[in-house]
Amino acid sequence: MSSPRFEAFLARLYADRVFLERFLSDPVSAMSAAGLDLREQRAAASIDRASLLLAAHSYARKRAARGWRGPPRSRLRERLTEATRTMLALAMSRVRGWIKRRVSGFPGGRAH
Fold it and tell me: Digits of tens for pLDDT over the chain (112 positions)?
């Protein structure tokens, strides 16, 4: 079994805890959703579950030890969120300064 589809299925079993749990509780549904053909489904059904769990747990520990925080898309989202917060904080400080200058220019206005 070395089709790209089957390899992607195995990689997902090792890396995606939710998908692994789904496969363990309902293998037929998980294999069908992955688009495996009959030969690939037979191969997947014959996987030793204890070994599968051991490998998935081992890979999860290795990812955690390396500080893996998810796929690149989620890391990009974290960076964008952080950059957005920084830009928003800078913009708000400038707006506050602008408001203080405007308010202090009115009769009876005072800056805080």
Answer: 478 899 999 999 998 889 999 999 999 999 998 999 999 999 999 999 999 999 999 988 888 887 766 666 666 667 777 777 778 788 888 888 888 887 777 666 555 5
Tell me if 3 sits within 8 A of 40, measured CB to CB: yes
**Burial letters 20-42, b for 16+ CB under 10 A, else e:** beebeeeeeebbeebebeeebbe
- How many CB atoms lie under 10 A from the CB of residue 106? 8
The structure tokens listed for 100 are 């203080």
Question: pTM for the complete prediction?
Answer: 0.55
Tell me the HSE value of 110 on the side-chain side, using a 13 A CA sphere. Answer: 2
